[in-house]
């Protein structure tokens, strides 16, 4: 099994996946690919949460004539693209939550020629008032240690993004590890080892995971039975009813630097500088803090009402790549609760040939990404479910489970009609309640439902599940000739998210879903 590291991912596949990049256009097409550099236009690879900056950028365009063409992506994935040279000639600038990752990778850092902070937002905890009352907490004196104690005694649950893909998740992980280890400077391997027992207790309270802050917030509001969220202050401020707490023993703050890329031409760099200057004017800074709840970096502008101005210790980012990698590897394989996933795979007659070959390749490649303790069920279907094969990636012998997945994947054959809803019902029956795992269903189909249960039947079946069973989301993948409306309805009904592999990479869609499992 491949060790998961904070700075490695299937970046090329992600770049080709329509659901990951290019959300600057409403149709989801990549705004950077094929868009040649031209005066007055800045092609920006940006952290996904910056989609809320659209009103500010519209005002910048009206004031200066500069048009920003954004492509949104997770911070960690974006860094890997830069390091591999896949941003050369495609983008003029980076606008990530932090450039700290770049500094851990010299091959990425050398591609940035300037960086200027635009705004800031610390990682914080969002807790509803009834939970604060129950815990007898005063928001002004909460520490990470107190949060850990509440979790340990079964009094607090929370959601957090995946540290492998999200800077908010990784920053929260570093914050907790720093506080619980008592580290007085940047984390070391010894600090991580020291904190491991307490971290394992801490992550028993994590009930929600996600590859993006937006979906995490939606899942939190939908579930209604998770106590708190760990995320950027700016994200938490957008969720009604939450009291935002910055722990007194320290936080990590995103400073959102706008960074010119060395591969950009002289004119593009000049436009990036004009954009930077425009974003740091008093008027723009006021608009940023009022519209997005981020903090201004210009001293003459005050933070928006409701942003606590009390000082907090700024925790240092790991200075050594091995420490960052080791911390994430520990989280993925030892600290967090394990995953249970059913892969409901269309192997109907229409999948015969190239489509089935692509499915087999995507699943085989994905085996290198499965975590220790993970339970993986393959449920291929045609006119009905063809079989149910479950494998566990045991820490004692991970190869056995992974080899079993590869063997069953290689044996897939294409025949029959397409029983989407019947197969989903059987997936839910197989999983039952989530218990102490992150449970999910991944649905991959290249066509619309043609036999068995119909949409209305599945809706009634889903409504008849217990609350615990309904907490398992379905993540459908658009592929081939699949019906977008049909799959979007399944995602909306179950609280999942739709991924698009019709014009991009099936490998990339499977890989991106990993952040939600």
- Oligomer category: single chain
Strand fraction equals: 15-25%
Q: CATH topology of the largest domain, which one? A: Rossmann fold
Q: Tell me the name of the CATH class of the largest domain.
A: Alpha Beta
Helix content: 25-40%
- Kindly report how far apart the N and C termini lie: 17 Å
pLDDT under 50 segments (min length 5)? 2-35
Beta-strand segment tally: 18
Average predicted confidence as pLDDT: 90
Total count of domains: 3
Overall radius of gyration: 23 Å
| CATH architectural type of the largest domain | 3-Layer(aba) Sandwich
Shape, per Cα inertia axes: globular
The helix-and-strand class reads: alpha/beta
Number of helices: 21
Largest sheet: 7 strands, mixed
Q: Let me know the CATH homologous superfamily of the largest domain.
A: von Willebrand factor, type A domain
What attributes characterize this protein structure?
3 domains; 517 residues; six-stranded mixed sheet; 18% strand; seven-stranded mixed sheet; alpha/beta; 18 strands; Rossmann fold; disordered N terminus; globular; D-Maltodextrin-Binding Protein, domain 2; 21 helices
Task: Outline the structure in words.
Helices cover 40% and strands 18% of the residues. The chain has helices spanning 11-16, 54-64, 75-83, 100-104, 106-109, 129-135, 144-152, 167-181, 189-202, 213-223, 233-236, 266-279, 282-292, 321-335, 354-366, 398-410, 420-431, 455-463, 467-470, 484-494, 506-513; strands spanning 41-47, 67-73, 93-95, 112-117, 119-128, 158-161, 206-210, 228-232, 242-245, 253-254, 257-261, 295-296, 339-346, 375-381, 389-392, 438-445, 474-478, 499-500. The chain has 3 domains: 11-119 and 256-296, Periplasmic binding protein-like II (D-Maltodextrin-Binding Protein, domain 2), CATH 3.40.190; 121-253 and 312-332, 3-Layer(aba) Sandwich (D-Maltodextrin-Binding Protein, domain 2); 338-516, Rossmann fold, CATH 3.40.50.410. With 517 residues, it is of the alpha/beta class. Strands 5, 6, 7, 8, 9, 10 and 12 form a 7-stranded mixed sheet that branches. A 6-stranded mixed sheet has the order 15-14-13-16-17-18, sandwiched between helices. A 5-stranded mixed sheet has the order 2-1-3-11-4. The relative contact order is 0.13. The model is unreliable at 2-35 (pLDDT under 50). The chain is built from 21 helices and 18 strands.
């Amino acid at each position: 099994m491949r060790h998961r590291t904070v700075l490695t991912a299937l970046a090329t596949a992600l770049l080709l996946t329509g659901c990951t990049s290019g959300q600057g256009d409403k149709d989801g097409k990549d705004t950077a690919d094929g868009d040649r550099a031209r005066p007055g236009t800045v092609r920006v690879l940006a952290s996904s949460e910056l989609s809320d900056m659209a009103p500010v950028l519209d005002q910048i365009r009206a004031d200066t004539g500069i048009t920003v063409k954004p492509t949104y992506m997770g911070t960690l994935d974006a860094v890997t693209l830069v390091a591999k040279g896949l941003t050369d000639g495609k983008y003029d600038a980076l606008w990530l939550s932090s450039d700290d990752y770049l500094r851990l990778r010299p091959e990425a850092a050398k591609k940035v020629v300037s960086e200027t902070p635009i705004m800031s937002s610390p990682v914080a905890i969002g807790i509803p008032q009834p939970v604060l009352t129950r815990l007898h907490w005063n928001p002004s004196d909460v520490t990470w240690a107190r949060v850990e104690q509440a979790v340990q005694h079964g009094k607090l649950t929370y959601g957090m993004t995946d540290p492998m893909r999200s800077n908010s998740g990784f920053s929260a992980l570093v914050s907790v590890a720093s506080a619980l280890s008592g580290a007085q400077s940047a984390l070391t391997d010894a600090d991580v080892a020291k904190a491991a027992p307490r971290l394992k207790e801490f992550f028993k309270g994590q009930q929600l995971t996600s590859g993006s802050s937006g979906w995490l917030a939606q899942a939190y509001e939908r579930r209604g039975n998770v106590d708190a969220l760990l995320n950027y202050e700016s994200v938490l401020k957008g969720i009604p009813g939450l009291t935002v707490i910055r722990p007194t023993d320290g936080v990590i703050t995103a400073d959102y630097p706008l960074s010119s890329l060395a591969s950009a031409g002289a004119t593009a760099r000049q436009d990036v500088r004009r954009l930077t200057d425009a974003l740091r004017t008093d008027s723009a800074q006021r608009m940023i803090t009022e519209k997005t709840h981020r903090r201004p970096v210009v001293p003459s502008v005050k933070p928006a009402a409701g942003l606590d101005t009390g000082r907090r210790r700024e925790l240092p980012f790991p200075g050594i790549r091995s420490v960052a990698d080791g911390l994430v590897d520990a989280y993925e394989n030892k600290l967090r609760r394990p995953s249970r996933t059913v892969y409901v795979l269309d192997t109907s007659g229409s999948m015969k040939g190239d489509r089935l070959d692509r499915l087999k390749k995507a699943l085989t490649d994905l085996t290198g990404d499965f975590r220790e303790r993970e339970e993986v069920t393959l449920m291929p279907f045609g006119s009905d479910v063809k079989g149910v094969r479950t494998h566990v990636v045991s820490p004692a012998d991970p190869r056995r489970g992974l080899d079993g997945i590869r063997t069953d994947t290689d044996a897939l054959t294409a025949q029959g009609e397409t029983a989407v809803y019947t197969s989903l019902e059987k997936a839910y029956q197989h999983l039952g309640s989530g218990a102490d795992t992150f449970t999910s269903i991944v649905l991959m189909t290249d066509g619309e439902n043609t036999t068995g249960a119909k949409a209305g039947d599945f809706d009634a079946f889903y409504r008849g599940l217990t609350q615990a069973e309904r907490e398992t989301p379905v993540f459908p993948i658009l592929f081939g000739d699949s019906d977008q409306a049909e799959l979007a309805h399944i995602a909306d009904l179950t609280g999942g998210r739709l991924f698009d592999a019709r014009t991009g990479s099936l490998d990339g869609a499977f890989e991106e879903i990993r952040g939600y499992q």
